[in-house]
Amino acid sequence: MSTQINGTDILELGFPEGKIIGIALKINSKRNGFTRDEMITNFKNVLETPENYIDDKIFSKLAVALIEKSNEKPEDFIALNQNPNAYSAYGLDHIEDGARKQMEVAMKLPVTVAGALMPDAHQGYGLPIGGVLATKNAIIPYGVGVDIGCRMALSVYDIPEAFYFENEAKFKKELIANSIFGAGHGFHGQYKSDHAVLENETFNMNPFVKNLKDKAWSQLGSSGGGNHFVEFGIMEFAQDDAVLNIPKGKYVALLTHSGSRGMGATIAGHYTKIAKEECRLPEVAKNLAYLDMNSQLGQEYWMAMNLAGDYASACHEIIHNKMERALGATILAKVENHHNFAWKEIWNGEEVIVHRKGATPAGKGVMGIIPGSMTAPGFLVRGKGEENAINSASHGAGRQMSRTQAIKNITQSEMKSILRDHGVTLIGAGLDEAPMAYKDINQVMEAQQDLVDVVAKFTPKLVRMADDGSKED
């Protein structure tokens, strides 16, 4: 019979973190006829005397992995810096310990120059989400993240607030007609879009990237699962903005959030695996494996990452162009900013690679959009160029509940109630994206007053998200 044992159970037996846990879970997932208690006993015995299980039909792979692990020496790994520089943190009182610990490990990398933690930070893989890390001549695939180049894009229309409420049905119709969601979903035949990004020569860089082109074409102009969205809302400028040339007032706006779809996720997985093989770090830091920017592999990843970023931007451009034509509206301003990316920047007089995983550029005068949740406001902001934050700001409110926690603790009636109270119409989305799963955006914005100035406030009114329970891809 199948036994219910998870990674935490195996760790508590004394197994080391890492791939050995995965091997044990794989053994446990097979129907080997053991009860839960019998499997736990077997795991204990293998841990204590792995040499007795080298030829065992079920546990041999686990036994060999344990023996190999016991023979590892510190000199087999790249040494971490035990006296790292301090990192800047914003809103630290509301950031979970897991994210702080991940940032502390990232600061110990021998290539790390500086770091910062944004107020929306929470635990991720490798670098925490909301983490900013500047490195010297090195690129970390998991410092960029899985959804490479994920971004926010905003179009502010010459449509007054009242027109939206008088024509909500039309906006809903166009939103459904001109957006598509979900992991693996895309367009086919005559419904495919074309864009110059498909002619990018980087697609011919190597066979691996070239094989991603067909999927990229199919998904061009689509949005992913998870927290990705396309939504209409009201953008309020409390005063004239001379830079954008928009007078004080309330306007209808379109806000989109998604990334490089399956192409970006495949690139991330491929080069992370390579980085781990090339850059052997201690277990605690293994997800921060990096590639030398002077190496062929480092340059390959850099080019693939930039291609994925350009592709993500093209997806948003297509959605916004479709909506502009459908509405027959004039766009007063367009703003786009991305996270899950790495940039070459000058910091303290030297060129560094700045990784922003779930954090956005906020250099002096740089525009950005920081969303809340489907019922909380988002903010159009202008960066202040704060050097201690490595010219960065948060990319949103940040989660305060994991997806699993949200599904367990939030009911459909609670979610419907909060949507009704805020006058928000929702198409799709599961309980894992309920507003209560996110931090208070106002608290997050207060913690980064030194990083950005607020230019305008966006209030969501009509939100579409994936409805198939899929995660970001």
TrEMBL record:
Source organism superkingdom:
Bacteria
UniProt feature coiled coil, ranges: none
Instruction: Enumerate the UniProt keywords alphabetically.
Output: GTP-binding, Ligase, Manganese, Metal-binding, Nucleotide-binding, RNA repair
Catalytic activity annotated for this protein?
Answer: a 3'-end 3'-phospho-ribonucleotide-RNA + a 5'-end dephospho-ribonucleoside-RNA + GTP = a ribonucleotidyl-ribonucleotide-RNA + GMP + diphosphate
Query: Could you say which cofactors this protein requires?
Result: Mn(2+)
Any Pfam family: RtcB
The family database entries (Gene3D superfamilies) matched by this protein are listed as: tRNA-splicing ligase RtcB (3.90.1860.10)
Task: Give the Enzyme Commission number.
Answer: 6.5.1.8
Q: Does the keyword Manganese apply?
A: yes
Q: What is this protein called?
A: 3'-phosphate/5'-hydroxy nucleic acid ligase
Give the originating organism: Flavobacterium ginsengisoli
Upper taxonomic classification of the species? Bacteria, Pseudomonadati, Bacteroidota, Flavobacteriia, Flavobacteriales
